[in-house]
Amino acid sequence: MHELAFTQQILWQAEEAAGAYGLKKINEIKVVLGELLYIMPEALDFSFHVLKKGTMAEEARLLAEYRKALAQCDACSNRYSWLEYGYHCPKCKSQETRIIQGMEMIIEYLEGE
Ligand SMILES: [Zn+2]
Q: How far does the centroid of ligand 1 lie from the alpha carbon of residue 78, in Å?
């Protein structure tokens, strides 16, 4: 279950950011997760529940927003669903394409006191 490793990363980053802002306690963490990380929401919630104990985020809520995997074609600038078409642009059939969204793990904000 790789969600444990992701959740640990989220907690470390959140605690570091909270410390930098002089917070003592975290109440809420909002994360943005790309769908190519293949995170299962239930496993994320479970991991957070287990790992937050004894941290600044012990009583915090974790909100997650999932972003679709998107690719962009360098030949025609078309943007499309990477999970549907992979590296083949559905518009011009070029393979000069790259993933532009779907791999990210970002803490969008956190609230604390
Ligand atoms: Zn194209």
A: 5
Q: Which CATH number fits domain 3-68+102-112: 3.30.2320.50, 3.40.50.300, 3.90.660.10, 2.40.30.100?
A: 3.30.2320.50
Tens-digit pLDDT profile for residues 27-52? 999 999 999 999 999 999 999 999 99
| DSSP bridge partners of 30 | 63, 109
Q: Closest Cα to residue 88, out of 75, 101, 106?
A: 75
Whole-prediction pTM: 0.87
Distance in Å, CA 101 to ligand 1 centroid: 17
- What residues does the ion ligand 1 have nearby, CB within 5 Å? 73, 75-76, 78, 89, 91-92, 94
3-state secondary structure (DSSP) of residue 82: helix
